[in-house]
């Protein structure tokens, strides 16, 4: 869906850009309805050789990591619509080349809102997401129904419903913008008034001594956007009240939409113009997304997938408190080594993970965290066209 929408956007509204190639792992003959079928390729080399910038929007941690490393070898900047990758291998990649998450999905939209807030003099305290519906353990039957109704995959629908996606989104915001969490899994306030909930979260942030990331579950108002809560200078209070943001001391800035693929072009244009990184997972992350068992499981049980599966869901955790946790983005086609209980945080002692480049990166990050050594990755180059999609 993201690739289709982005291709249509560039073709119809960005006359100064050309999508040169679109990488797919599917048979080309199966994609006759793709809006730029002539650009499709199964060759990563062809993608790299014909691109000035790569947009990675596969949603796949393993494949996306391989594509991005190849892009960096060729000196190409990368724009992602792949928060799952960012919170798994993104910190390593951020030290190897130019990588930024795009505006459009909630993390990029929050980062853009923060830039606007800082330019207006606000001091951010809360980076807030919105969740329209939450069920930590949905059924396959329900997820199949909603996937068909919404035109997206079952695993995407499941990760949105069980809360994994919002945890991932807020972790990249926390790492990229220097914020933390108040507790594992965040607060996730049930909310009938955004201003009231925002003020409560702001007070929690001030007690924590640094900005926080969190989310609300709205009732009685729309849940399609993102919000930022901050303070401002006392001598601006009368003016801000006149501008209809209330009496303070906490002010809520609401961006009531995030339009995914329709906004990615803004970040592409930003990068090509030398505008710099909008958001990535930083080279020194403090937060991760652990895997929480949804039910009791026995040793030997096979795990098809973590994100969007029916065995685990993701929760935001502090890396310093849980250095042995398995990032949920690594759980794919593996097996349990021992039994686990509902609500248990999965560690590397619990699972037998297949070798992969993503696993190598995560294990190196884990070793560095345990030993307390600083990142030795190089400072990424600035980005400098032709575009390409890695999917």
TrEMBL record:
- Locate the transmembrane regions by residue number: none
Q: Which GO terms describe its molecular function?
A: NADP binding; oxidoreductase activity
Q: Which ranges carry the Aspartate/homoserine dehydrogenase NAD-binding domain? A: 2-86
SUPFAM superfamilies, from UniProt?
Answer: NAD(P)-binding Rossmann-fold domains (SSF51735)
Q: Note the Pfam families from the entry.
A: DRL_cat, NAD_binding_3
Taking every annotated instance into account, which residue ranges of this chain make up the domain Oxidoreductase DRL-like catalytic? 104-264
InterPro entries, alphabetically?
Asp/hSer_DH_NAD-bd, DRL_cat, NAD(P)-bd_dom_sf
Quote the PANTHER family the UniProt record gives.
SAF DOMAIN PROTEIN, STRU PROTEIN
Query: What is the protein name for this chain?
Result: NAD(P)-dependent oxidoreductase
- Provenance organism: Stutzerimonas stutzeri (Pseudomonas stutzeri)
